[in-house]
Design brief:
The complex is a heterodimer of chains A (329) and B (342).
Chain A (H helix, E strand, L loop, with lengths): L1 E5 L4 H12 L3 E6 L6 H4 L4 E4 L17 E4 L8 H22 L3 E5 L15 E2 L14 H19 L4 E6 L1 E3 L11 E4 L4 E5 L5 E2 L1 E3 H12 L8 E4 L5 E2 H11 L5 E5 L1 H16 L11 H8 L3 E2 L2 H7 L7 H11 L2
Helix pairs in contact in A: 1-5, 3-4, 7-8
Chain B lengths: L1 E5 L5 H10 L4 E6 L3 H10 L4 E3 L2 H7 L4 E4 L6 H10 L3 E5 L6 H14 L3 E4 L6 H10 L7 E9 L22 H6 L1 H10 L3 E9 L10 E8 L3 E7 L6 E8 L2 E6 L4 E6 L6 H28 L7 H16 L7 H14 L2
Parallel strand pairs in B: 1-2, 1-4, 2-3, 4-5, 5-6, 7-10
Antiparallel strand pairs in B: 7-11, 8-9, 9-10, 11-12, 12-13
Classes of the chains: A alpha/beta (329), B alpha/beta (342).
Chain lengths: 329, 342
């Protein structure tokens, strides 16, 4: 079985390639012309160079491929570039995969697609919750991820190709900055960290190897066709506990200051008013709408996928954190 | 949605209450073989329609969901025609007495597209939900062992005639088999991929079937567990103890309290014992105040698990979400139950 991985030079994509190879899959790794391929060059994979936003460059991408994990997205550049790479890119990939008679297409979406502004505080969000109603107000990444997922959902309704959509949480592991922007703001050159929200707020973490494991298990599981799944580890850690762990692990002695979410929202309101002042129009992006998408106190339910796959992470949370921060390369 | 309830026994008032307070559904009709009981309940409920035969109810009423609260050995008989007609069904625990019956119902549901839910209400009990969150938390560490003790004083419900004339007689394990889904649902919820189970059955009372003791040991991927059930232990008890790598959580499900026991590494051992006792008693005291106040102010109800599960059932039907407890989930419980009381 040959699996095409898009976004193969990225944090998730590169690990996916590694785990797929361990599981004896053949891998075709798609990267952009400018991507760092150092990691991929060391592995026995076929590298395909192309640009998701450029249909011409994707010619022949499905040759010899049986299954696709579409983890690629454009997360940099102008809004237009992001739209082209992420939304148009997804459309191209679906069309090409359909034409090539691909046996399974896994679309990697994100938790940002949920409509955080209508979801009540403290909800446990499962896969059936509504998608973002005003993606254009939620920022570039949320916008492009929401629209591409909407497209995949529509496509799924008419297509005979087996498709599964996954929405991974915050994926942690070596080779990435593990100070997630959701944790809060770092101030005074990192000496102070403003942690947003209450103490019990839980981080929707998923360890990179757990994420890869479930995605690969999806590939040959027919029950998952046409379905959508959150990918969240069953064990939970609060923002407070994670920050403590993080600071100890990276040997930082920052002072953590808890900031109530309501205070931050008040700031958002001030920005919204400031945005209406002529001359400052639209200068501040931190609106209450966007703050809600990032900092609201909600939890995500990842149990459906684990139950469907009948799989449970082998490593404990402590061990996964230990590996992510210290042992994994 | 329109709902109907079959069986107007003790448990029915919780279902009536949940249905009538849920905006997603309304109570269309009730049914009981006992015409007087059916009539009385119907009057209490403000003149809702009542039947004494399920087939008549199904024929005359257009309903979307059916609650089956009959004695367990009749669950399948009552639920099957409804499931075949595509009516969603919520069945009280135990869902059936045999694996075969559960499978038949699951198949019928799958065929017609109806959904089969089971009332394993302990899974939606607020105290258990809190305990479960603790077991999954970073502060708790990994679950090593979970232990449930379920003891039930039969004198409360049984008269001089013993089981004679009660539906409990239809079950080989009578009380214990009827109550087994409570602890079992919890253990199946906490354990992942169970490898082996070991059953110990004992009867210190000789021929007296009301003295049965049951112990079950589980070995699973993430932890081990034990279920202890007794009809002789006094007083009534329903406790869950969760042993973790960083904490022990003692959960009293009947008294709705949780006491967390942590290590006190920085204090000399002799002091630590004292501090631990003080910490435990403080938690217990705080808990007692909160629960008492909560119950007095009607914020906390001992039967909240039931209401929560029924509400979750209707939300799932409305939004096409996975059911709180499906017929497939309940199958595991019945498989083990059948093994215990062959």
């Amino acid at each position: 079985m040959k699996v095409l991985v898009t976004g193969a030079s990225g944090f998730l994509g590169s690990r996916l390639v590694e785990v797929l190879l361990q599981k004896k899959y053949q891998v075709k790794a798609m990267v952009r012309p400018k991507s760092n391929r150092e990691f991929l060059d060391k592995m026995p994979v076929e590298v395909f160079v192309g640009d998701l936003g450029d249909k011409e460059s994707l010619r022949g991408i499905m040759d010899g491929v049986d299954m696709v994990i579409h983890a690629g997205a454009t997360t940099f550049g102008t809004f237009e570039e992001q739209k082209r790479g992420t939304i148009e890119g997804t459309k191209y990939m679906l069309d090409l995969a359909q034409q090539a008679g691909i046996k399974k297409f896994v679309h990697v979406s994100s938790l940002v697609v949920y409509d955080m502004n209508t979801i009540p505080n403290k909800s446990l969000i499962n896969e059936s919750f509504a998608l973002e109603r005003f993606p254009e107000r939620a920022g570039g990444y949320a916008y492009t991820k929401t629209l591409s997922e909407q497209y995949v959902q529509e496509f799924m309704k008419t297509s005979t190709m087996p498709i599964t959509i996954v929405r991974p949480g915050l994926v942690y592991g070596a080779r990435r900055n593990m100070f997630f922007p959701h944790l809060g703001f770092s101030a005074a050159g990192g000496k102070v960290i403003l942690r947003i929200g209450c103490e019990e707020k839980v981080l929707p973490l998923t360890y990179i190897y757990n994420t890869c494991e479930v995605m690969i298990r999806l590939l040959d599981n027919d029950k998952t066709n046409g379905k959508i799944y959150n990918i969240i580890d069953p064990k939970t850690i609060t923002y407070k506990e994670y920050l403590q762990y993080y600071l100890r692990a990276v040997r930082l002695k920052s002072i953590v200051v808890p900031v109530p979410f309501s205070l931050l929202k008040l700031m958002g309101l001030c920005f919204e008013i400031a945005n209406k002042v002529p001359g400052l129009k639209g200068k501040f992006g931190l609106t209450r709408y966007r703050l809600n998408t990032k900092f609201k106190n909600v939890r995500y339910d990842g149990s459906l996928l684990l139950k469907t796959l009948n799989w449970y992470p082998e490593l404990s949370l402590d061990e996964s954190l230990e590996r992510a921060f210290h042992k994994d390369k | 949605m329109r709902s109907a309830v079959i069986g107007c026994g003790n448990i029915s008032r919780f279902h009536f209450h949940a249905i009538m307070t849920n905006p997603l559904t309304e109570l269309a009709a009730i049914c009981d073989v006992n015409p007087e009981l059916a009539k009385r309940k119907a009057e209490e409920l403000g003149g809702v329609k009542f039947y004494t035969r399920v087939d008549e109810l199904l024929k005359n009423e257009k309903i979307d969901a059916l609650h089956v609260l009959t004695p367990p050995h009749l669950h399948k008989e009552v639920a099957l025609p409804a499931l075949e007609k595509g009516i969603h069904v919520l069945i009280e625990k135990p869902v059936a007495l045999t694996v075969k019956d559960v499978e038949v119902m699951n198949k019928a549901a799958e065929k017609s597209g109806a959904r089969l839910g089971v009332n394993h209400n302990m899974l939606y009990d607020p105290t258990y939900r809190r305990a479960r969150d603790i077991a999954n938390s970073f502060a708790f560490g990994d679950l090593l062992h979970a232990e449930v003790f379920f003891g039930f004083d039969t004198r409360r419900v049984i008269g001089a005639n013993g089981l004679e004339g009660t539906w409990l007689k239809e079950m080989k394990g009578h009380f214990l088999q009827d109550l087994f889904p409570h602890p079992a649902a919890i253990i199946f919820d906490l354990l992942q991929n169970i490898n082996t189970t070991h059953i110990i059955k004992k009867n210190p009372g000789g021929d007296n079937i009301l003295k049965e003791e049951v112990r079950i040991l589980f070995d699973a991927q993430n932890a081990t567990a034990a279920i202890n059930m007794s009809l002789s232990v006094k007083p009534d008890i329903f406790t869950l103890v969760l042993y973790g790598t960083k904490m022990i959580a003692r959960v009293d499900l009947s008294n709705m309290s949780i006491v967390k026991q942590k290590t006190w590494r920085r204090i000399p051992k002799a002091f630590a014992r004292g501090v631990d006792s003080i910490s435990q008693s403080m938690q217990m005291f705080g808990n007692t105040i909160c629960v008492t106040a909560g119950v007095a102010l009607k914020r906390i109800s001992p039967t909240a698990g039931m209401t929560n599960l029924i509400n979750a059932f209707y939300t799932s039907l409305d939004k096409d979400w996975p059911l709180p407890v499906s017929g497939q989930d309940a199958l595991k419980v019945i498989e083990l139950s059948e093994k215990i009381w062959k």
